[in-house]
Amino acid sequence: MVGNVPTGWKKLVSYPDIKKYDLSSVRVATSGGGMCSPELKKQILALFPNALLLDVLGQTEMTPIVSFRIDGDPEAIADRSVGKAIVEAKIVDENGRELPRGEIGEICYRSSSMMKGYYKDEEKTREVMQDGWFRSGDLGYFDEEGEIRTVDRKKECINTGGEKVFPLEVEEIIQSHPKVDSVCVIGVPDEEWGSAVRAVVQLTEGEKMDEQEIRDYCRGKMAGYKIPRSVVFVDEIPLSPVGKTLRQQVREQYGS
To answer: What CA–CA distance (Å, rounded) separates 63 from 98?
Structure first.
């Protein structure tokens, strides 16, 4: 079995000498800790032809797995699906009302493995624990098969001119450009629109691009209001020890 976070998988599948190794013995590849795009899943399955891919969604507060999806057929991969919940789950609106399938809202969980609360932080505990349910802070919806489709973190949603932009959607498209190593999309203050979309881009070593090239690449692949109004190129996007983008650090460094 081989396990990794999406950032680690991206580096592994693009490693120039990876085909020099015999990977036929791998039977299970696991991913978690972030969104694993359909294109990345296909690359993982191609790299390990005898393996199934287990994509896991979890949170520490739930100890920790809440759902998982198993993929083996590249043609059957469902975008943003993390499978069916293995705990009680529901999708609610801002007022806590349960939403029907297909409508985006906050994902809530309940189970016997759920935490009792945050240590010595009753206020934060009250914010996330409501009527016996844990409000995850993740936005998503149930599809027609009853599987959870994740959208983004609730707090990361960018409101620009009254329109909602989910950074992950924009990041996935920019990330698909062959010259891009990694990208983090954030909202920055804007006098006219309230917030504007900004892409912080780390290019693949040796590559060169300008802001217009990024914007042109996005055109036709997303709604116009989602296209970054500004692009900042950086040497390195800050990552956590497990390879997750440190979005708050990106905001602090490049969000003014």
So the answer is: 24
Q: What is the pLDDT of residue 227?
A: 98
pTM of the model: 0.87
- Quote the percentage of the chain above a pLDDT of 90: 95
226 φ/ψ angles, rounded to the nearest 5 degrees: -90, -15
Contact 213, 151 (CB under 8 A): no
**Cα–Cα dist 80/6, whole Å:** 13
Residue 233's beta-bridge partner residues?
201
Crossing angle for the helix pair 6-13 and 38-47, nearest 10 degrees? 50
Q: What are phi and psi of 208, to 5 degrees?
A: -135, 140
- For the segment 82-105, the average pLDDT, to the nearest whole number, is 97
C-alpha–C-alpha distance, residues 154 and 244, integer Å: 17
How many whole angstroms separate alpha carbon 244 and alpha carbon 195? 24
Run of H or E residues at 90:
strand 88-92
Measured between alpha carbons, how far is 253 from 66 in angstroms, rounded to an integer?
A: 33
| Burial label, 199 (beta-carbon count in 10 A; 0-12, 13-18, 19+) | buried
